[in-house]
Amino acid sequence: MKRVFDFIKGEVFVELSGTSPERFFNICRSRKIPLYNVSTQLTEKGTCYVAKMKLKDYLRIRPTAKKTHCIPYIRKRLGLPFWLKKYRSRIMFFAGGFYCLWFVWLLSCFVWDISVTGGFVHTEEELLSYLRENGVVCGMRCETVNCTDIERQLRIDYPDIGWVSAELRGTKLFLRVAETDMPIVQEETKTPVHLVATADGIVEKLVCRKGTPLVKEGDVVKKGDILVSGIISVIGDNDIEVDRYPVAAEADITLKTIKKYMHTFERKMEEHNFTGKSENGYRFFYGNKKIFSHMPSHSYTNYAIITEDAVLSLHKHFPLPFRVQKTTVSEYVPVIRDYTKEEAEQVAEQALERYVAYLTGHGTKVLSVETKMTMNEKNVVTTGKLVLLSEAWEQVAVQENEWRLQNSDEYSGNNDESSSGA
After folding, report:
1. Are 157 and 187 in contact (CB under 8 A)?
2. Given CB 3.0 to 4.6 Å as the disulfide criterion, which of 46, 177, 292, 412 pairs with 118?
3. Of the candidates 259, 191, 192, 182, which has an alpha carbon nearest to the alpha carbon of residue 228?
4. What would the DSSP string read from start to end of 178-192?
């Protein structure tokens, strides 16, 4: 710390020559002018003394040097005062540097980027839109970001998100989520309903909570069959049905079904042979506001546009609100050719993988897949079947005539509204 203060105040290395340097040292001591690192050196003029002293003390030794007939020649200057004097003509440069440091500090007080990872069912765009609706946006002050509130509110509004972490690092907000496989609790309905199969299949699992199950595990059902009835019968003596009443049937039902698969695409494909000619353009953004734009001019008939974005940042956790966008327009020549068998198989396999991923993401388990690909002059056709395990049922309202019993005549025993007389 002492060296820092000495640098700020300034120091000089003095070469002392004269007739009575010893007297010079004695007077400096009596006047409390400190000298450091005093030593002797041989020069062309003979032996001389070299010492280090502070700048403020050097300005006080003039009377002493005159009295002792010594010449304190400055050999070296150190410290901030000499550095500022040397670069005093560049004051605007240092003022600009100071302004840049202040501006960077000001930018560090705001959130300029939000990263969302871990979502599958809930996409990044969906969660970013949710954060915007709740006031968490780029450009807000870091001190107003409450990570605990964000985590708590997300778990409340998204019951299928089992774990969430919100962390602010520098000017970047990291949001990590982990979704669970638990099904979303459906709203309880008060309308009496049946649970009806939506596809042909085999009952793999049936756990009834309310209603009357009409099938059991292992039964084969067809589309439209009632799996769990929303009508409960009241049985009296001698196993005679005395009353019925409707309820909203509830059950966990899983069916094993077979789904036909078919995918068709054209055999001819268009390839782009790039000629190597291209034009570049640039755009600069501050936040979402465009501050400069230079779009490439071209006269290409067939061209592809590629856009690259880069966010300026001082550190991986310190992005700035400045974004550079590079647009490249490249010329190409279209060439039409047919898929080979290997290429067609690869395209068909990728389409099947996307379809299976779609089913899996919507709660359907794919047990097995059998497909066959055929090629003709125009198209490539993939057909087959998928064995699925899913909740293939829906709710159907119970009609009043299904459960209401006709009241019989108490005296005549007839079910008609009129009674016969004696």
Report:
1. no
2. 177
3. 192
4. EE-SPPPPPPPP-S-
Tell me: do 110 and 159 sit in the same domain.
Answer: yes
**Encoded amino acid at 87, one letter:** Y
Neighbours of 169 (CB within 10 A): 12
Domain encompassing residue 206: 193-254
- pTM (two decimals): 0.51
Question: Measured between alpha carbons, how far is 275 from 335 in angstroms, rounded to an integer?
Answer: 12
In a structure prediction context, what are the per-residue pLDDT tens digits for the chain, which is 422 residues long?
A: 777 777 777 888 888 877 778 888 888 888 888 888 888 777 766 678 888 888 888 888 888 888 888 888 888 888 878 877 777 777 788 888 889 989 888 988 999 888 888 877 788 888 888 998 988 988 889 999 999 999 999 888 888 888 889 999 888 999 999 877 554 444 455 789 999 999 999 999 999 999 999 999 999 999 999 999 999 888 877 778 788 889 999 999 999 999 999 999 998 888 889 999 999 999 998 877 888 888 888 888 999 999 998 888 877 778 888 889 999 999 999 998 888 889 899 999 999 999 998 888 888 899 999 999 998 888 999 999 999 999 888 999 988 888 776 654 444 445 444 433 33
Co-location of 248 and 287 in the same domain? no
Strand partners, 273: 333
Task: Compute the distance between CA of residue 229 and CA of residue 247 in angstroms, rounded to an integer.
Answer: 9
Last residue of a domain, one of 85, 101, 130: 85
**DSSP for residue 335:** E
Contacts of 338 (CB under 8 A, 6+ apart): 267, 268, 269
Same domain, 104 and 65: no
Residues 6 or more apart whose Cβ sits within 8 Å of residue 415 = 406, 407, 408, 409
Residue 292: strand pairing partners: 284
